[in-house]
TrEMBL record:
It comes from Clavispora lusitaniae (strain ATCC 42720) (Yeast). This is 40S ribosomal protein S4. The keyword Ribosomal protein applies. SMART domains: S4 (SM00363). Belongs to the eukaryotic ribosomal protein eS4 family. GO terms for cellular component: cytosolic small ribosomal subunit. The keyword RNA-binding applies. Residues 24-88 form the RNA-binding S4 domain.
Length: 224
């Protein structure tokens, strides 16, 4: 018989900031990953007590779609988690400190001008942030303060940077950009070398920037 908790019968994420196939419902996170609940009713009881926050905001929807780089906070147990991919492309539970849980990284999807020529950027999690640094461009990564929702730092998408692949057959692989191929009228390709000196290439639309700048990979990559 089919498992009633997976496959066709898996909880369907609600509409939200992340795509259907790029998100993890809170019910799966609490019940199946953390084992803090035995069934859906217990998950709803936990959520209705407002013990769970995603990116600093209380969420009571059991199928709310948490996605890549989201910070999940459990105030009752004083725990913080960041959703990242493992080397096989699956969501993994990565515990972080309260300090690391105060920010998140966002990939810039586009930059444009709004009403009255106000510049803004749109990140991979659906955020629209006005008045960004003029040097920020598409594919760059920004550091977002969850308390204020403002950009506190950013890094350019360029060779020599540490990246994690967030799509395609190389989903979850981490490496350093060694070369970029620009194709006019098409997707740019980047050549990435991982820790084992294996080189692979991928389209830039499926790249997520992370950086070293005094921080230990910003505390976003799971150990091992």
């Amino acid at each position: 018989m089919l498992d009633k908790l997976s496959g066709t019968y898996a909880p369907r994420p609600s509409a939200g900031p992340h795509k259907l196939r790029e998100s993890l419902p809170l019910i799966v996170f609490l019940r199946n990953r953390l084992k803090y609940a035995l069934n859906g009713r217990e998950v709803k009881a936990i959520l209705m007590q407002e013990h769970v926050k995603v990116d600093g905001k209380v969420r009571t929807d059991s199928t709310y779609p948490a996605g890549f780089m989201d910070v999940i906070t459990l105030e009752a147990t004083n725990e913080n988690f960041r959703l990242v991919y493992d080397i096989k492309g699956r969501f993994t539970v990565h515990r972080i400190t309260a300090e690391e849980g105060s920010y998140k990284l966002g990939k810039v999807k586009k930059i444009a001008l709004g009403k009255k020529a106000i510049p803004y950027v749109v990140t991979h999690d659906g955020r629209t942030i006005r008045y960004p640094d003029p040097a920020i461009r598409a594919n760059d990564t920004v550091k977002i303060d969850l308390a204020t929702g403002k950009i506190t730092d950013f890094i350019k998408f360029d060779t020599g940077r540490l990246v994690m692949v967030t799509g395609g057959k190389n989903l979850g692989r981490v490496g350093v950009i060694v070369h970029r191929e620009k194709h006019e009228g098409g997707f740019d390709l980047v050549h990435i070398k991982d820790a084992l000196d294996n080189t692979f290439r991928h389209q830039t639309i499926q790249r997520f920037r992370c950086w070293y700048r005094g921080w230990k990979a910003m505390g976003v990559f799971a150990k091992g």
